[in-house]
Structure formats: C-alpha cells, structure tokens
Amino acid sequence: MSETATPSRTASQGTEHFDVLIVGAGISGVGAAYHLTRQCPGKSFVVLETQDSFGGTWWTHRYPGIRSDSDLHTFGYRFKPWTSAPIATAAEILSYMGEVIQENDLGPHIRYRHKISSASWSSQENLWTIEATRTDTGDAVRFTANFLWMCQGYYRHSVGYTPEWDGMATFKGQIIHPQTWPEDLDYKGKNVVVIGSGATAATLLPAIAQDCAHATMLQRSPTYFRTGRNAIALAEELRALHIQEQWIHEIVRKKILYEQDVFTRRSFAEPEVVKQELLSAVRAQLGPDYDVETHFTPSYRPWRQRIAFVPDADLFKGIASGKASVVTDEIERFVESGILLKSGKTLDADIIITATGFHLNVLGDIAFTIDGEPLVFSDTVTYRGMMFTGVPNMAWVFGYFRASWTLRADLVGDFVCRLLNHMQAQGVRRVVPTLKPEEQDMPLLPWIDPENFNPGYIMRGMHLLPKRLDKPEWQHTQDYWAEKDEFPAIDLTDGTFVYG
Ligand SMILES: Cc1cc2nc3c(=O)[nH]c(=O)nc-3n(C[C@H](O)[C@H](O)[C@H](O)COP(=O)(O)OP(=O)(O)OC[C@H]3O[C@@H](n4cnc5c(N)ncnc54)[C@H](O)[C@@H]3O)c2cc1C
C-alpha cells in the first residue's frame, strides 16, 4: 500500500485510488477515519457517504424527541469526552461528531452524496473496484482501494419497515414511519396511534403527547424499560471537583461498563429477580392501580431484546398524566377511522405512526463480486462478526446490542489498523480469514442464537447474514467484556488469516 495520504489516479482515467475506502459517515465511519489517521498515519483513505452530511442514524432519524437509548459516555468515542447528560438528543450527537471531524481534520476525507452500488474484488490486482453514483449530479464515479472498511450500519436508511395490514388503503388519515418523518407533520390536537413498543415508540409518545388530543402506544407485546434520572451522579461529583473531562469520561465509562456487566450477567443468572426489579421500577412510576402485568411485563427474559432507558421517566409521566396511554392488543385490520383490534375494540386515529422497525441491510445494498462471482454473504462464516471467510481485505463494524455500538467500533478500529500495519510490515497485499482444517467440518449456525437475542429485524433477515461456528473466534459474541481483552491479543499469524 502507498505511504501517501493523498489519493492517486490509476491508469483508468477518472478512477481514484485509496489505500482504504470507508463506507458510511455514521458513528462507525467517522471513528474508522479517526483511527486510521492516528494508527496508520501513512495510509490514504476516503469516506463515501450517500447522505448530505455525517451522522448516519442521527442524521436520518428526525422524529420528535429522537435521542440515544444508551449513555453517551460509552456511545461516545473513547477518545473524545462526553460532557453533557448521558442520554443525548440526535442534535447533540451530531454536534459531538462534528467536533470530532473538525478537531481531527477529517472533513477533507469525506465525500457526501456518494451512493455506492457495487464493489468488485480482483485477486489478480489485489484490489477492490467501487462504483458509486453522485446523488447530486447523477454522475457515475469509480474508486479503487486495497481495503474496504464497511461502516454502513445494519439497516436501510431510505425506508423503514412497515408490515402489511389488511385495509391499510381504507384508512382516511396519514400513515407515517418514524424513519421518514415529514418535517411539516401537524399532529397538534390530533389523535395519534403509535404502533410499536420499542425505544422509538417510547421516545415518540412523551415527545408528542402534550400537543396531541391523545397519543396511544399500540403494542402486540410489552417491552422492558429501565428508568432513572438523566444524569450520572459520579460525573456530577467529579465535575464539581474540577477533575479533567478526559478523566471523568474514563472513570464514568468504567463505572457504567462495570454496572452493565453485572446487570447482563444477572439477567442470565437470575432472570426472574431482574425482571421483578425492572417491573417494580415501572410500578413505582405508574401507581398501584395501573395494569403493569398487561402492558409492561414481557414474556421473554430480560436482555433477550434491547432494554431502552427512559430518562426522567418521561414515558411513564406521559401515561400518568392521561395524555398518553398504552393498548396491548393485536391488529385485526385498518378501517376508515383507525384500527380495528382483535379484541373487537376500535382505536380511532387521525395519524398512525408505524414504529415497527427496520429493514436489515446487509452490506449497504452494495452488489459484491469476488473475481467476477457474486458474493453470497450468507454462504460465508464470520470471523468475530467483522471479517468473512472468502472475502479478502474487508472488515465490517457491527456493534453491540447490549452495550453501546461505539465500544465495538473502537475495538474493531484498533484491530483493523493493527492488521493493516502488520500487512505493510510483512509486505503482503491480501488477507482472507480462513477456517483451519479442524474447523471446516463444524456445523454452520445462524448469525446469532435466537435464544440469546432475537429482535424482529434480525429474525426477519437472519437468512441474509453470514454463519457462525460454535467458538468465539467465529461469531459475534456480543460480549464487550470478553472482546476488550481478546481483540488486542488476536494473533495475526496463527493461520486464521491467510495472506497473499
Ligand atoms: C433511533 C435509533 C436510536 C439508536 N440508539 C442507540 C443507542 O443509544 N446506543 C447504541 O449503541 N445504538 C443505538 N442505535 C443503533 C445505531 O444505529 C448504532 O448504534 C449506530 O448509530 C450505528 O452507526 P453506524 O455508523 O455503524 O451505522 P449508521 O448510523 O447506520 O450509518 C451508516 C451510514 O452509512 C451510509 N451508507 C449505507 N450504505 C451506503 C452505501 N451503499 N453507499 C454510501 N453510504 C452508505 C448511510 O447513509 C449511513 O450514513 C440506535 C438506532 C436507532 C435507529
């Protein structure tokens, strides 16, 4: 790979070449760019992003109240202190990311409005060729890169997932997906039904309830929530002592991660006790007469799906105030005036919001070929949820579900940079994760064990995802606490990585 940080033109006119091409300028892509500048200062790189600006998830989602559901000390990068309340709005996260870009001069490396459509690997040249379209001009553009760093997230940004219900066309009001929220949506004084029970529904409900005639969260089944003050007492204390923000960030991260580790382990070891703790916190907010059993008691054990944090109990306060309510029932069909439920009741609505999730988007809707053959991603086996058998010079950042995504983006960042530096030192141009002979007959398992974690978008898209083996090296373990020690110790010469 070249030593220069500036791109070079290849023989094919108009094709720009970079050592590394990063797909996406969300929290992962911007993090990848930062790690490259610090850990591989000689490498040239470019970030290609479809949208008009950076932020990914935080740029796409614009519904009222949009905020993180995990704390920003751990969702923030390890290298840039988070100095505000732990649960942050999208605007705050974008502003933080903007500072990262500016402070590290990453802006010149990012090309917005570049939608990548294909990526083709040539073993003869040890090179990826990436075709993209400029969404502003419609021009086709081409890049070559030695290494592809996939930071495209896990869901399709252009459109959310809305199930098909009978009678949808007969409904006289508006149907909106939160992912494509119209800027001018007028919900003042209207009856709004939000279908869903996850973090999005829980955020939206209190954010719109005060302006609506009434806001109803319609859920098929309940979800676990945690609640508390949107503040970290230890951070406040340290700040009062004028401790440096870098130290506060580090100490608070350690505290949060320790507590999350304990909580996760308890969820597996004593699920019933944890369940009762979560439910009693909800009961304390909603009072003894509220039917917590029906509306807030999931049938699954805690942590099998993501547990959203409700800052300052705003969801529960909205319900207690009478402006918002929860209905637990199933949809029979849409009718002119709203939704007919299986129980026979009708929910009248002017606006129905389908907070029903995402379309899993494996590899950013990019058509991959390897030496002319289409890549069937589900035929590969994943190396630690970041590389794939038979796919040379490529890594994907797929974060954690039970801990903040960015913890893993930082770990993968360190690993990729170490791998790139190792390849340079060895004078090799290709790396392919490969099963060792003794691993080749191991049963191929789905990407994740549904007993472990089973949100709808993963279950709907499991057939598209790579396979895993029953050993930590060949799966995404979702275990930050193990990976934080395992990743730096990965032996790049143990035969798993085949170089060329
Ligand atoms: C509403 C919401 C709240 C969330 N809150 C949290 C939270 O609190 N904590 C947490 O850990 N996780 C949270 N998540 C999960 C969240 O998506 C991830 O944590 C994280 O933001 C993903 O970052 P990313 O950069 O990997 O991907 P994304 O944010 O999805 O960004 C990917 C980028 O790649 C671009 N891209 C994709 N395909 C192409 C292509 N073909 N060509 C060019 N560009 C492309 C996209 O336009 C996008 O900008 C939340 C998700 C949602 C939807």
Observed structural traits:
single chain, 500 residues, alpha/beta, FAD/NAD(P)-binding domain, 2 domains, 10-stranded mixed sheet, 5-stranded parallel sheet, 13 helices, 24 strands, 28% helix, 21% strand, globular, binds flavin-adenine dinucleotide
Write the layout of secondary structure elements.
Elements: E1 8-9, E2 16-23, H1 27-39, E3 45-48, H2 57-60, H3 72-75, H4 90-103, E4 110-111, E5 114-122, E6 127-134, E7 140-150, E8 174-176, E9 191-195, H5 199-209, E10 214-219, E11 225-228, H6 233-240, H7 245-269, H8 271-286, H9 292-295, E12 308-311, H10 314-320, E13 324-328, E14 331-335, E15 338-341, E16 346-348, E17 351-354, E18 367-370, E19 373-374, E20 382-383, E21 387-388, E22 394-396, H11 405-426, E23 431-433, H12 456-461, H13 480-486, E24 497-499
Parallel strand pairs: 2-3, 2-7, 3-4, 5-18, 7-22, 8-17, 9-10, 9-17, 10-13, 11-12
Antiparallel strand pairs: 1-2, 5-6, 6-7, 14-15, 15-16, 18-19, 20-21, 23-24
Fold and architecture overview:
- The protein is of the alpha/beta class.
- It folds into two domains: 8-157 and 359-499, FAD/NAD(P)-binding domain, CATH 3.50.50; 162-356, FAD/NAD(P)-binding domain.
- The chain has helices at residues 27-39, 57-60, 72-75, 90-103, 199-209, 233-240, 245-269, 271-286, 292-295, 314-320, 405-426, 456-461, 480-486, and strands spanning 8-9, 16-23, 45-48, 110-111, 114-122, 127-134, 140-150, 174-176, 191-195, 214-219, 225-228, 308-311, 324-328, 331-335, 338-341, 346-348, 351-354, 367-370, 373-374, 382-383, 387-388, 394-396, 431-433, 497-499.
- Strands 1, 2, 3, 4, 5, 6, 7, 18, 19 and 22 form a ten-stranded mixed β-sheet that branches. The protein has a five-stranded parallel β-sheet with strand order 8-17-9-10-13. The protein has a three-stranded antiparallel β-sheet with strand order 14-15-16, with no helix packed on it.
- Helix 5 (199-209) links the parallel strand 9 and strand 10.
- Helix 5 (199-209) crosses helix 10 (314-320), helix 6 (233-240) runs antiparallel to helix 7 (245-269) and helix 7 (245-269) packs across helix 8 (271-286).
- The longest helix is centred in the middle third of the chain and has 25 residues, at 245-269.
- It is globular and about 70 Å long.
- 41% of the residues are buried.
- Residues 1-5 have low confidence and may be disordered.
- The chain binds flavin-adenine dinucleotide.
- Residues 23-29, 48-51, 56-57, 61, 68-70, 75, 114-116, 151-153, 157, 200, 364-366, 397, 399, 404-405 line the site of flavin-adenine dinucleotide.
